[in-house]
Amino acid sequence: MSRRPFHRAGEDVRRHDLIAATLDCISESGLQGATVRQIAARAGVTPGLIRHYFSSKDQMLQDAYREVMTGMTSAVVAAADGDQQSARERLHDFIVANLTPPVADGRRLSLWAAFISHVRVDPAFAEIHRESYLAFRSALEELLAEVLAEAGEEPAPQRCRELGIAINGVIDGLWLEGTLVGDLFTDNPLPGIAIRSAEALLGGIVLAQDTPSS
């Protein structure tokens, strides 16, 4: 197990380094295997320092889950942040970013699988999941409203909501398939399938002429 360099910096940076070490350990050993001692060793600090930043292991795991979820949303929002692009091009890039690395990769899958069982049984994890889901869908619905307006259609909130739920469902399903058995889709890459599905849901609005093949 390699150690992460622990920076002598501000409180926020130190806390971020500890969360990063926590995620490394969870990715390798799961939630039960990621002990405070193992995380401290990975971060190159003492267990006592971890207790200075987190009141309990549960709090540390909750913050780590929040980091995973917000990090994925931030990555796809950033991919769709092209000032010179049309709304359709930005929605295209948003969808593709969900189904390509670094959002769609084995490490993300391992972390998701480790955390997701807690969502149904732990109210704190459930709330983090709910907040993250709503933030993701809000970003998606905003893009959809811009796409509809750009196409000369009424971006009614209810329609954007229903489209957001449907397209998010497509993304989630393809993300899971792609990270589990991605080798089965080399002849028909999943980003292209997602784009064509979104275009069908949008009533034929074309998001981009050229869709990345991976």
CATH topology of the largest domain: Tetracycline Repressor, domain 2
Q: Can you tell me the overall shape?
A: elongated
CATH level-two architecture of the largest domain? Orthogonal Bundle
Work out the number of β strands. Answer: 0
CATH superfamily of the largest domain: Tetracycline Repressor, domain 2
Uncertain stretches: none
How widely separated are the two ends?
31 Å
Query: What series of H and E elements makes up the topology?
Result: HHHHHHHHH
Largest sheet: none
How many structural domains in the coordinates? 2
- Average of per-residue pLDDT values: 91
| % residues in beta strands | under 5%
What portion of residues is helical?
Answer: over 70%
Protein name: TetR family transcriptional regulator C-terminal domain-containing protein
Keywords: DNA-binding, Repressor, Transcription, Transcription regulation
Pfam families: TetR_C_6, TetR_N
Domain HTH tetR-type: 12-72
List the helices and strands and how they pair.
Blueprint: H1 11-33, H2 36-43, H3 47-53, H4 57-79, H5 87-98, H6 106-119, H7 123-150, H8 157-181, H9 190-201
Helix pairs in contact: 1-2, 1-4, 1-6, 4-5, 4-7, 5-7, 5-9, 7-8, 8-9
Keywords: DNA-binding, Repressor, Transcription, Transcription regulation
Domain HTH tetR-type: 12-72
DNA-binding region: 35-54
Description:
By secondary structure, the chain is mainly alpha-helical. It folds into two domains: 8-54, Homeodomain-like (Arc Repressor Mutant, subunit A, Orthogonal Bundle), CATH 1.10.10; 56-201, Tetracycline Repressor, domain 2, CATH 1.10.357.10. 71% of the residues lie in helices and 0% in strands. It is built from nine helices and no strands. It has helices at residues 11-33, 36-43, 47-53, 57-79, 87-98, 106-119, 123-150, 157-181, 190-201. Helix 1 packs across helix 6 and helix 4 runs parallel beside helix 7. The chain is elongated, with a radius of gyration of 19 Å. It starts with 10 loop residues before the first helix and ends in a 13-residue tail after the last helix. This is TetR family transcriptional regulator C-terminal domain-containing protein. Residues 12-72 form the HTH tetR-type domain. Residues 35-54 bind DNA. Keywords: DNA-binding, Repressor, Transcription, Transcription regulation. InterPro entries: BetI_C (IPR039538), DNA-bd_HTH_TetR-type_CS (IPR023772), Homeodomain-like_sf (IPR009057), HTH-type_TetR-like_transc_reg (IPR050109), HTH_TetR (IPR001647), Tet_transcr_reg_TetR-rel_C_sf (IPR036271).
